[in-house]
Protein 1
Amino acid sequence: QKEVEQDPGPLSVPEGAIVSLNCTYSNSAFQYFMWYRQYSRKGPELLMYTYSSGNKEDGRFTAQVDKSSKYISLFIRDSQPSDSATYLCAMSRSGGSNYKLTFGKGTLLTVNP
Amino acid sequence: KAGVTQTPRYLIKTRGQQVTLSCSPISGHRSVSWYQQTPGQGLQFLFEYFSETQRNKGNFPGRFSGRQFSNSRSEMNVSTLELGDSALYLCASSLLQGARLDEQYFGPGTRLTVT
């Protein structure tokens, strides 16, 4: 079993829809959870950074972590065409060890105007 | 403030050749990490350099190597290229080694195609 599983999609939604992106993981030692957005021909850009369980909101984006289920989600409200990108989840046991970051393979999202 | 820059952006090489990729971190950043991104394996950590020394290494063969210069710029070298080395190579910089994960910034990547 892969440490981090992420549905690759592709996911296509109309503008204004609520988008739900998800990752599951197997390593219960993961404590730090991140979501990155990667536009075509660009590097990943950090969207959300959370520690342990709970919710975190930033504008139209909400990250949820359920450690009991080993499941994390990213919700995008009122999705825009500019949200069209690949979304990567990532997680780590330590907050200061990028070499221990484990990434999902990414979900390709297209928001249609 | 300029972001992380990587050169070249695109590269086509033949099996058996070697390649050198370059990364210039954000001004003032001293830690540079390299990642390989492929559709099959996703994003995987290659190595991290800080103060011209390799600090951490991922699970890649010895054909993958790197170095860092005194101005914090870093190069990555892949020798005896294989078809499976075709990937997007990403560089990320942070102020210090072991910086918080939310203080790491990625460059645009170098797309390497091996034929």
Protein 2
Amino acid sequence: DAGVIQSPRHEVTEMGQEVTLRCKPISGHDYLFWYRQTMMRGLELLIYFNNNVPIDDSGMPEDRFSAKMPNASFSTLKIQPSEPRDSAVYFCASRIRDEKLFFGSGTQLSVL
Amino acid sequence: GNSVTQMEGPVTLSEEAFLTINCTYTATGYPSLFWYVQYPGEGLQLLLKATKADDKGSNKGFEATYRKETTSFHLEKGSVQVSDSAVYFCALTVGSSASKIIFGSGTRLSIRP
């Protein structure tokens, strides 16, 4: 298996633009997590899904952020409109049941 | 609530030195405890874990013992290598489903040759 695949690897955009981050979890995994990593706040859980259903989105910063999982092999995290303070590395991770978490390589987002 | 507190970094050591990175936790119930490692430019990966009190997790020369009496899970290695330079995260899960993984803030480790 190729592991958790995220795209794009890097994204540079201007303030006010819409940003869409994509994730393909490992096949067969039933949990999917979105994390954000910054120097100031460390690793923050934004939202997670179980069997494609959002379970806990309490970490989503505000209404500008939304996440979807239309099927077991794909998820998106969207920011609209983007702001400079959204600049961070965004990680997607997946796992099966309560076993270990597998992370993607992350998307480095820069909002100018 | 549930939380994890790690020693602040960065930690800089010489090769072959002894390493300790402190981690303490607060949890309702009986958590499982983990150490994850993040190498430059990569996502996190599981280093070791312990699921009950007095368990010792070990991998790649690293060890950590689940200490319920001190609510701690300190990471240790007897002789570090340059290749161990990375960011280390302590984490926990709580509950029967153990769905939500809570991470500490991470400790950056740099090893000098």
